[in-house]
Amino acid sequence: MDFRFSEKEEAFRREVEDFIKKELPADWTEKNIYWPGGYGTLAEFEVVNPQIERFRRGLAEKGWLTISWPKEYGGAGRTNIEQAIFHERISYYRAPAGEVATEIGGPTIMLFGSEEMRREWLPRIAKGETRFWLAYSEPNAGSDLASLQTRAVDDGDDLIINGQKTWSTAAHVSHYAWMVVRTDPTAPPHKGITLLIVDNNSPGVTIRPLINICGFHSFNEVFFDNVRVPKKNIVGERNKGWYYLMVALDFERLVIPMGGFRRTFEEITQYAKETKHNGQPLSHEPLIRNKLAEIAIQIEVAYMFFWQTAWMLDKGLVPNIEASVLKLVTTELSQKLANAGMQVMGHYGQLERNSKWSPLRGRVSAGYLDCISALVGAGTSEIQRNIIAMRGLGLPRG
To answer: Which of 2, 3, 19, 111 is deepest in the core (most CB within 10 A)?
Structure first.
């Protein structure tokens, strides 16, 4: 594996960076306190922001929301390495880009949806006209999604849905739910689940805000009371949703904000160089230097897994185990980076973003609270270790 960029890839990297610097407000990166890997500091999901919408439309016009999609479906037809380059640069500048429809829904529809479904949904997703939210988790079904209880029963050409979803990121600023429901309660848990698309504006859908520990409204709880959904919105075959869900989760685990880790680390390092303690910069203290060196090494390791996964996709390989390794390494890096930031900044690291004394606009304080979500979303660290052990190492269950 040679992860050096070709001339074409390097040119594309510069093009993406130039576009971001031109189209985003000059102070965007500094003001945005998003913590890499977390789910609770996604302030862009609080409201529909005209600046964000304009930026995303610009990305869509270039085909960058769907970089590795085939051109016939509205994509740019580029490689997965180029898509990884795009995500790395986007996350470095904390820029808003893709979401569930472009990163999870669209690729899954391409694999398993009917040709009719592809023609209906993929062009709209590629143009940035359609946003999805993940309707997976329920009050008693998170890591064990096979325990989900939201039901869908037949009624002519429709399904009638009843149930509840929670931790529903961006449901209030999206158009459709990318949703799993139980369609055969008599089947084994993994064999009676169906994946489908549900319009947020359907009668019977109620979205209630959940304000997270960081003070943002990014999550929601969503209720479905006799919600009618046309059967043509079923993705793939009925009762095979668990299989599609596992593939879709691999797509989710590949969308890693690698650039965000590097940017945040650079900011913490710069703070250590500029802030003095007992007349010396913090960066001169051996404990601080060792901690920052350790994080720097772990970021480089994570980058290697990141590029390896994109390389495998371009080679036609399925990075099932590698996706779990990448997810595990980077989300635990999110927590290690937050801990390091707190150790470097001491009591100042606890100050929130509304304090004029707070370093980095309170990003480390928010990140310290948010990094816990990184270890849970898209499959907990324990789940990832189980996948690596069983699928990668061939170890027996429990």
So the answer is: 19
For residue range 38-68, list pLDDT tens digits in order: 888 876 666 667 888 889 899 999 999 999 8
Which CATH class, in words, describes the domain spanning 132-242? mainly beta
Task: Identify the pLDDT of residue 174.
Answer: 94
Every domain of the chain with CATH number 1.10.540.10 lies at 7-126
Low-confidence spans in the chain with pLDDT less than 70: 1-3, 43-48, 250-254, 398
Name the CATH superfamily housing domain 7-126. Acyl-CoA dehydrogenase/oxidase, N-terminal domain (1.10.540.10)
Q: What region does 57 belong to: left with phi over 0, alpha with psi -120 to 50, or beta?
A: alpha
Which one, of 96, 122, 99, lies nearest residue 177 by Cα? 99
φ, ψ of residue 379 to 5 degrees: the values are 105, 120
The torsion angles phi and psi of 72, rounded to 5 degrees, stand at: -65, -15
CATH annotation of 247-392? 1.20.140.10
The H-assigned helical ranges of 104-178 are 106-112, 115-126
- For residues 170 and 135, the answer to whether their CB atoms sit within 8 Å is no
Q: Which residues are marked as active site?
A: 252
Question: Which is nearest to 188 in space by CA: 239, 137, 142, 249?
Answer: 239
**CB-CB contact of 33 with 43 (8 Å):** yes
